[in-house]
């Protein structure tokens, strides 16, 4: 898709190129690692080499002793209560540096500073640890057995929380339903792997008397809350700046011990200290994602009507909860989203959020829904196979239709609007389902088998107070704020609390401001990611920024536009109500016009030109939350065409289509980019990426030689069709969509594999579907 020129003034819907890319393309982005300050020292961490152990002490090298810091020397730190404030949730502190126990391989034990990273690592290598190995817990299902070793001694079992969702009478349905599909489905553990890992640089600014923290984060304001609290410093003395951020994908929405340690080191050392995470640290110790096990039974009638869903969901949350949200988000979202678009009125689902000897689980693009979608959509396909139906037919028979909306699912999600079956049909048309069926009958000349798989998901976005209160969030992301300012030359600044870290928000928010102000977006600057510059905001995650920050931009610009018209009307001697904004001018009905530059000058430096009684501040601030804070739902059908070699288990993606609806699109070019980026990450989940652990808690993928990221060579051309069902509860009818691309690929690809071997009933119920797992599935099904 290419850049398009919009009709005059119609900036919403215009496919503009992302303005922020220009600086990256010429190497002028500024990331934490690019910041140079006099006296800067590099930090690294002495990390646990064991998965679970008692820490008896450490011996530091005598000549470098003052460069090595343990918890007691760096602290004291105030505990950050991480996690939902709900009954039954067990909290535990994630220590900044371990004191008497280590609970995963890679956990920071001591911090080392030196003039260079290399020197710091050399010193760290001389630190001797006195550790006593403890039995490790590495399987979330086994961890719930009564005789499992405990990770947190005070807990009666290894669960952060066990809870669930019930509706109807699943037990009664189970007793009589003629068809039942029971499966264990497993989505394995992943690393998040943004281009830029975690990074922090901190120093005390003596002139401003404040701690300045450059942080690669998704939310500077929320991180300031956490840093100030952990260090016991007043928030007005903590200034967090997120410069360019090389991707976050959810993982940089949490405050981690290393980042707090860098701030504490800066205070101790009296000069700037930084830590730039390397890949090995990222794979071992950064927030990880996705590890879910589903033990589920789907009950149905002979005609394919889905009746009930029953079972257990196990989420491997790792050893500690991450501030602020803690360890429950994944499980609660998995269960709430499990029935997807289907009319299943009876559910009995338990979820177990389990502590193991692994790094903490963080949110990763799609949060829980890739696993839930994988589980439900695999069950849907297995039901279709059992009944001899086309997989899309089983979906059609069970999907909520446009006429039934708004529809509240058994788990309480309010699906607001859209035409789900139309998206399904479009995906089937676009991938060429009929032609694929004919081709399958003919067979492939190279002996491979081809299969087509479908997966449907909904993506809740724009959810605010009601939803976060229900989840017991301690920091409740319920609104966003924008301050818009007109400068003396008539150009504008938009200051927002959300942040851009790859989504294109500098471009799209300028488009929304341009639409409201009728000003070329080239004359609008968007500023974000600096607690001293932008208004308070919760940051960019949960596909919330366009709805929330876009709404705040629209509202603040409308207030400012009123003022501009008032001043402009005075200058052209016209009643302001009769004026309109057009191309950077206030225009009267007679055609008389005055430019924003003249208005800007009048307000700022020529106040004798101002209408009497009007104050000269050309600035407006507005806060926005959608009308219904339970959210608005985007949705999409993905379809994948694969070719599989039964001998090697190698899978090639031949085609991939997406039929999506995210309401009004601000910038269709960016929407397509977001979908495509998400799909490649989902392909990684489906086929390649996995962080396995051995029984002692050793990670087995700590370099890219073992952790396989998909590359351009694995990427099919993603073909995207759009439906536009505007949301009734947001400005312009926008729905969020930034995560969706990553949700469906594991389900669509596993379904395509199953379709390729439909006759044999081979099962593809564990991701990633590596060649080894594909061959094992074919052997188990006795595929010749
Ligand atoms: N957009 C649009 N019209 C819509 C919806 C969105 O034009 N109806 C555009 C937006 O204006 C924005 C982008 O698409 O430029 C994504 O918008 P939105 O859906 O509001 O999502 P957020 O901006 O809140 O981004 C968060 C989302 C999440 S949760 C993850 S994880 C993720 C993602 O975005 N991480 C990313 N996309 C990413 N992309 C990059 N490059 N890097 C990441 O770390």
UniProtKB/TrEMBL annotation:
InterPro entries in the record: Ald_Oxase/Xan_DH_a/b (IPR000674), Ald_Oxase/Xan_DH_a/b_sf (IPR036856), Ald_Oxase/xanthine_DH-like (IPR016208), AldOxase/xan_DH_MoCoBD1 (IPR008274), AldOxase/xan_DH_MoCoBD2 (IPR046867), AldOxase/xan_DH_Mopterin-bd_sf (IPR037165)
SUPFAM superfamilies xref list: CO dehydrogenase molybdoprotein N-domain-like (SSF54665), Molybdenum cofactor-binding domain (SSF56003)
Aldehyde oxidase/xanthine dehydrogenase a/b hammerhead domain span: 26-135
Protein keywords: Molybdenum, Oxidoreductase
GO MF annotation, one: oxidoreductase activity
Gene3D superfamilies for the chain: Aldehyde oxidase/xanthine dehydrogenase, a/b hammerhead, Aldehyde oxidase/xanthine dehydrogenase, molybdopterin binding domain
Domain of life (superkingdom): Bacteria
UniProt xrefs under Pfam families: Ald_Xan_dh_C, MoCoBD_1, MoCoBD_2
Name under which the protein is recorded: Xanthine dehydrogenase family protein molybdopterin-binding subunit
């Amino acid at each position: 898709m290419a850049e398009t020129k919009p009709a005059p003034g119609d900036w919403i819907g215009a496919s503009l190129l992302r303005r922020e890319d220009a600086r990256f393309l010429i190497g002028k982005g500024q990331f934490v690692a690019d910041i140079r300050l006099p006296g800067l020292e590099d930090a690294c961490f002495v990390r646990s080499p064991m998965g679970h152990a008692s820490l008896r002490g450490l011996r530091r090298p005598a000549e470098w002793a003052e460069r090595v810091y343990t918890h007691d020397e760096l602290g004291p730190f105030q505990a950050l209560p991480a996690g939902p404030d709900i009954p039954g949730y067990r909290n535990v502190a994630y220590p900044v540096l371990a004191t008497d126990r280590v609970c995963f391989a890679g956990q920071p034990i001591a911090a080392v500073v030196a003039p260079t990273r290399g020197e710091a690592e050399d010193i760290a290598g001389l630190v001797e640890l006195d550790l006593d190995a403890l039995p490790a817990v590495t399987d979330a299902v086994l961890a719930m057995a009564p005789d499992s070793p405990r990770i947190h001694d005070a807990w009666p079992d290894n669960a952060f929380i066990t809870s669930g969702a019930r509706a109807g009478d699943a037990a009664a349905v189970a007793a009589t339903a003629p068809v039942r599909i029971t499966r264990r489905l497993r989505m394995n553990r992943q690393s998040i792997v943004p281009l830029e890992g975690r990074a922090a640089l901190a120093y005390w600014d003596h002139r401003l008397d404040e701690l300045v923290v450059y942080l690669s984060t998704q939310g500077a304001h929320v991180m300031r809350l956490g840093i100030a609290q952990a260090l016991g410093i007043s928030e007005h003395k903590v200034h967090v700046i997120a410069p360019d951020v090389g991707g976050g994908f959810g993982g940089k929405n949490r405050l981690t011990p290393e980042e707090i340690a860098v701030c504490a080191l800066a205070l101790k050392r009296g000069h700037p200290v930084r830590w730039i995470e390397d890949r090995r640290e990222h794979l071992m110790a950064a927030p990880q994602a996705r590890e879910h096990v589903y033990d589920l039974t789907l009950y149905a009638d002979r005609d394919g009507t889905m009746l009930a869903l029953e079972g257990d969901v196990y989420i491997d949350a790792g050893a500690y909860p991450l501030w602020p949200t803690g360890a429950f988000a994944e499980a609660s979202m998995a269960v709430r989203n499990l029935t997807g678009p289907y009319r299943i009125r009876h559910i009995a689902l338990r979820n177990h959020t389990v502590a193991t000897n692994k790094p903490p689980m963080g949110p990763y693009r799609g949060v829980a829904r890739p696993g839930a979608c994988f589980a439900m959509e695999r069950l849907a396909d297995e039901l279709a196979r059992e009944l001899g139906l086309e997989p899309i037919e089983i979906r059609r028979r069970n999907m909520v239709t446009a006429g039934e909306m708004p529809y509240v699912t058994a788990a309480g999600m309010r699906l607001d609007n859209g035409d789900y079956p139309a998206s399904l049909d479009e995906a089937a048309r676009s991938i060429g389902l009929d032609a694929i069926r004919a081709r399958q009958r003919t067979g492939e000349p190279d002996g491979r088998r081809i299969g087509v798989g479908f997966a449907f998901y909904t993506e809740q976005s724009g959810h605010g107070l009601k939803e976060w209160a229900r989840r017991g969030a301690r920091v409740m992301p319920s609104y966003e704020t924008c301050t818009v300012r007109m400068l003396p030359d008539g150009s504008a600044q938009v200051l927002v609390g959300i942040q851009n870290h790859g989504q294109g928000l500098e471009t799209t928010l300028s488009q929304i401001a341009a639409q409201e102000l009728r000003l070329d977006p080239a004359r609008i600057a968007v500023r974000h990611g600096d607690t001293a510059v932008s208004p308070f905001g919760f940051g960019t995650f949960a596909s919330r920024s366009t709805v929330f920050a876009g709404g705040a931009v629209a509202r603040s610009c409308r207030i400012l536009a009123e003022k501009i018209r008032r001043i402009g009307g005075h200058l052209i001697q016209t009643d302001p109500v009769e004026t309109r904004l057009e191309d950077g001018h206030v225009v009267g009905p007679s055609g008389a016009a005055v430019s924003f530059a003249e208005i800007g000058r009048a307000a700022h430096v020529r106040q004798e030109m101002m209408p009497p009684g009007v104050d000269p501040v050309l600035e407006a601030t507005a806060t926005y939350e959608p009308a219904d804070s339970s959210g608005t739902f985007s949705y999409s059908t993905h379809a994948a065409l694969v070719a599989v070699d039964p001998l090697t288990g190698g899978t090639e993606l031949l085609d991939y289509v997406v039929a999506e609806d995210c309401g009004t699109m601000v910038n269709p070019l960016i929407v397509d980019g977001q979908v495509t980026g998400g799909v490649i990450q989902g392909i990684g989940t489906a086929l390649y990426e996995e962080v396995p652990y051995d029984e002692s808690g050793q990670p087995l993928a700590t370099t890219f030689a073992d952790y396989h990221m998909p590359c351009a060579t694995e990427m099919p051309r993603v073909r995207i069709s759009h439906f536009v069902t505007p949301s009734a509860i947001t400005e312009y009818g926008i729905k969020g969509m930034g995560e969706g691309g990553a949700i469906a690929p594991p389900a669509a690809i596993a379904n395509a594999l199953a379709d390729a071997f439909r006759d044999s009933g081979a099962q593809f119920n564990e991701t990633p579907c590596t060649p080894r797992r594909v061959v094992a599935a074919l052997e188990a099904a006795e595929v010749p």
